[in-house]
């Protein structure tokens, strides 16, 4: 079974590829044929940059997931201290 993060990574990469094909499809036939290698190189570079961005976001999400239990514990401690300090 795949991890949840890899599903989102796949969704983002798929969206990027779809957007690239959509933009590429809007170019005229002659222009597309004459500059196909150039367009492919640009497209490949864009996909690589998007993949790096997705990796960065996945790492940040992992950091957030790791920090969340610590933050919850701090909030609980602060809340219990405030509760103890309340007048009865």
List the helices and strands and how they pair.
Blueprint: H1 4-25, H2 29-34, H3 36-85
Q: Note the overall shape.
A: rod-shaped
Structural class given helices, strands, pairing?
mainly alpha
Query: β content, as a range?
Result: under 5%
Major sheet characteristics: none
Overall average pLDDT: 77
How far apart, in Å, are the first and last alpha carbons? 53 Å
Plain-language structure description:
- This protein is 89% helix and 0% strand.
- The chain has three helices and no strands.
- The longest helix has 50 residues, at 36-85.
- Helix 1 (4-25) packs antiparallel against helix 3 (36-85).
- It starts with a helix and ends with a helix.
- It has 88 residues and is mostly helical.
Brief summary:
This protein is mainly α. 89% of the residues lie in helices and 0% in strands. Helix 1 packs antiparallel against helix 3 (36-85).
């Amino acid at each position: 079974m795949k991890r949840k993060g890899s599903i989102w990574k796949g969704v983002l990469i798929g969206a990027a590829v779809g957007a690239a094909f959509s933009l590429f499809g809007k170019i005229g036939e002659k222009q597309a044929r004459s500059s196909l290698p150039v367009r492919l190189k640009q497209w490949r570079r864009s996909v690589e940059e998007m993949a790096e961005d997705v990796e960065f976001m996945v790492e940040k999400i992992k950091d957030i997931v790791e920090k969340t239990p610590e933050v919850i514990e701090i909030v609980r401690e602060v809340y219990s201290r405030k509760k103890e300090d309340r007048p009865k």
